[in-house]
Amino acid sequence: MKALQDNNSSSKYDVSVVLFGQKHTAHSYLYYKYESMKILITLLLLCSVFQLTAQTMISGTVKTKKNEPITNANVYLENTYDGATTNDEGKFSFTTHETGTVTLVVSYLAYKTHTQIAEVDSLKDVSITLYPDISTLDAVELSAGSFQAGDNTKVAVMNALDVVTTAGVAGDFIGALQTLPGTTAVGEDGRLFVRGGTAEETQVFIDGLQVFKPYTPTANNTPTRGRYSPFLFDGITFSTGGYSAEYGNALSSVLLLNTIDEPKQNQTDFSFMSLGAGIGHTKKWKKDALTVNAAYINLAPYNKLVPDANVWNKLPESISGEAVYRHTAKNGLFKLYSAFDRIRFDVAQEDINFDELVRLNLTNNNWYTNASYEGFVGNKTRLTTGISYSNSASNIGLDDLDVNSKEQSFHAKVKIRHSFNNMFKLSYGAETMSTNFDEEGVATNNNDFRYNFKNTLSAAFMETDMFFTANFAGKFGLRTTYSALFDAYSVAPRISLAYKFNKRAQVSLAYGNFYQAPQNDELKITQDLDYQKATHYILNYQYKKNNKLFRAELFYKNYDNLVQYEREFNRPSHNFNTNGFGYASGLDLFWKDTRTIKNLQYWVSYSYLDTKRKFQDFPREVMPNYATKHNASLVTKYWVNSLRSQVGMTYNYASGRPFNNPNSSIFMDGRTKSLNNISFNWSYLISQQKILFISASNLFGFKNEFGYNYSNTPNANGQFDRQAIVPSSDRFFFVGFFWTISEDKTKNQLDNL
């Protein structure tokens, strides 16, 4: 017996079909006075119709490519209710009244749907083989060099909101990423240093478009923060190497941030913090949504309670705002993102080469906006396109020198991705990036200067995703870039391969060439340079089971054409060239467990780094002063149900960093002591939509040193005096109250509480 399903159902025969297998009903029967007689005669007439109508038997077997039977596969004739499901031996049979040419459809979860057009009389004892659907969640993943964060990824190393509740980072997603392997914590800087590369070797993208100024400006030896709110992003991809041919102009790493596609409801968020306040609102319509955030930060009240070692004429003050507009079109999604911030401070700091404090005052206005569209053109072709614009203007006063700089940047990109089938996808596109840089300085000694240049890069890329089987996949890409400033081309092939042993374990390989133009501070001196180059080799092993994830990754990176120059009193002067070179190799380990202990999630990361380079003013190839051989992090988050609280702890360790001691005859042979930092936080759920958040960084007050500044001239004993580079404050405390008002009255800013 078969039971009829709704014509709108996506699968017609999940249970069974029509009574007696007949899709047509009898019509035009006589009306009988007595109901019982009517039913009896109707049934007799139906039986006689069945006997007179010719039926055709359709039968066969459904199996895998390994000849294994598939049970409960769905088999039916397209646009009919005739069908059946396979038994334990993979066999099926059913009858139909259809004649002529028909379409037989066979479907089963995790396998590609099989369609077969044939004469109905020929569909007897057919043998059908189903092949794995490569697009299913169990398919192999190209994971070498890439960390995913977010709810919609196959393997997430952290939830997107984990960045907010990681102790010691105070809501900065850059700080949270520094707990992952492959990164080096440079305490006085705060930016991402990846696998022996400088911070400039990592580029940041929002919705696929480059962010040219992703960090806030700060005083000397004071760590910076990322400019953008983590609450606006639901997906983060952090590549420590071997990234896609779609992205360029980065020697070491890319950080991809994706804004939330569609908010779930209307809501308003309030933030009251020890450093300032913020407000955000999301309004959702049928096809449109708008999110607006604004924040005001002022360190003056905090500094009165917890003063630091600097002398502030004006403590850091900033006002910022962000907005994301989304429109859902018929076949795609349009997003418009904009962000603005204004930062001011005035500080006096000690400098070993000056008897008096050195004064630095800065005002920076930064505006970034991008517009992107992603949607289908036809059934199998996806179009992604967008533009971004950045304008950053700074006024810097340094004792008797005033500097005004302005940087305007533009990025436009178009990408087409065509899915020929589940096993082969082709992506190709083009982009252009242009930067106008203008800087002028006015000094009291009339040593005025002005630098300006325009750097335009144009690139084309192509990449294929090929799934040879559900367990074996490859990505093959090629990127070519032309620089109008250098009048030079670069060609960068990139390859990734992955093989999955079983549902839990897989191995990946990645190789690629990566090019990057020199930095603006180098190009403003001279444009007679060339592309810098890095070649990546990566071997990755990944194991996941029951909310546990283990990753191990070996890497080797070779550098060529690094920028070199001579210096005088710590300023680049002349003899610029791109003859530098170097290498970086090492091992990254990562383990995350959210299951073993109830209410506890934690991750552990460790990195070993061996790197040397000859670049900038280095006289020989050595480990640079920002690199450390050993880095480790332990992050824990524990939910205490009785206290309605989440308690977090982060421990960071880094071995000593190199520094150059001019009192030694060997360049860069000094080592700082190891870095240790233990931070705590506490998130208390006052009510479902009200949260109190308290954190303390370096709670035990470890006396960390990041290096040393030496005097330019020797003292009376012929020795160069030195000054330790240390944090302006040993500890940092943060208190915040977060209040959400939403339609469902349950959502809060920290959804995992």
E-strand count: 43
Structural class: mainly beta
Q: Treating each run of at least 4 consecutive H or I residues as one helix, how many helices?
A: 5
Task: Give the strand content.
Answer: over 45%
**Please, what is the average pLDDT?**
85
Distance between the termini: 50 Å
Query: Main beta sheet, described?
Result: 22 strands, antiparallel, barrel
Unreliable runs: 1-36, 43-52, 149-156
Amount of helix: under 10%
Computed Rg: 32 Å
Gross morphology is: globular
How would you sum up this structure, described in words?
The chain is mainly β. The protein is 5% helix and 54% strand. The chain is built from five helices and 43 strands.
Short structural summary:
Helix content is 5%, strand content 54%. The chain has 753 residues and is mainly beta.
Topology:
Elements: H1 35-52, E1 56-64, E2 74-77, E3 83-85, E4 91-96, E5 101-107, E6 114-119, E7 126-130, E8 146-150, E9 156-158, H2 162-165, H3 173-177, E10 183-184, E11 193-194, E12 202-206, E13 209-211, E14 233-239, E15 253-259, E16 267-273, E17 276-284, E18 288-298, H4 300-305, E19 311-328, E20 332-349, E21 358-376, E22 381-398, E23 401-421, E24 424-443, E25 449-469, E26 472-483, E27 488-500, E28 505-516, H5 520-523, E29 532-545, E30 548-564, E31 567-568, E32 571-572, E33 577-593, E34 600-614, E35 630-640, E36 645-654, E37 658-659, E38 670-671, E39 675-687, E40 690-697, E41 707-710, E42 722-725, E43 732-742
Parallel strand pairs: 1-7, 8-9, 12-15
Antiparallel strand pairs: 1-4, 2-3, 2-5, 5-6, 8-14, 10-11, 12-13, 14-15, 16-17, 16-43, 17-18, 18-19, 19-20, 20-21, 21-22, 22-23, 23-24, 24-25, 25-26, 26-27, 27-28, 28-29, 29-30, 30-33, 31-32, 33-34, 34-35, 35-36, 36-39, 37-38, 39-40, 40-43, 41-42
